[in-house]
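(Structure overview)
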Amino acid sequence: MTITGVWFSQIIMPAPDVFIRLFEKPEIRTVGIALLLIFPAIVQVALNIFDVSKGSSSRRKRGVMDWIIFGLVVTWLGIVSWFDIRKSEIPHSAWVVIPLIGAGLYRIWQGDWALVLLAVLVTAVSERYRISQAFGWEELSRIITWLPLLFLGVFLSIQSSPLSALAIIGFWAAWELKWWGGADAVSAITVCLIWPGMFFIISFLVIHLIVVIASGLASMVREQKIKLHRLPGLPILLASVLILKVGNIFLG
């Protein structure tokens, strides 16, 4: 699939205005306005990369694109992590839905549509009650109705990206079991679509283990016993992405 600058701009350029219209609180609008100022410049660089022909410098251009994607993901995760730490929630589901759609389009462009199919299916299953109400079909609210499609999605995606497919299933299971919030799980699935493979999963597990140990030690010092706490999923994802990038730099 070929992506041209014109096609890309038609999809991406309206995004900042969508974000700003979603929020009415002054502090949230301030964040949106700040993003509006820097977004066109980032998009223009991306368009230049998409429109140039392939040549001897294609590897360098790919590296620039990787840094742009990394910058966008870190900016997004930084904002939603701030909301998560301050209020334990994000102001609107669009903060995770729009990045998920973008990550899905990016992964399809990279040729791995099966992983996107799995991400769409697990998200739909977790939203099955709303889907059932929207279509007026009670059977859609039962998880057993979705199992054949889930098995199909797992079977197809595990052929190309087995670790990422299992990770997406794991994040979805944490969402279903209420171990993680929906925003945390959807954000984790989004990152899996952007960087499928073991390196992100390893960095996530390392950061998660560090946070678990640190929170356990902190509770033992304060309360003289080890107590489980709600782990901040979005900040953990942000730290995982940063560790992933550092690891990629050192590993070349």
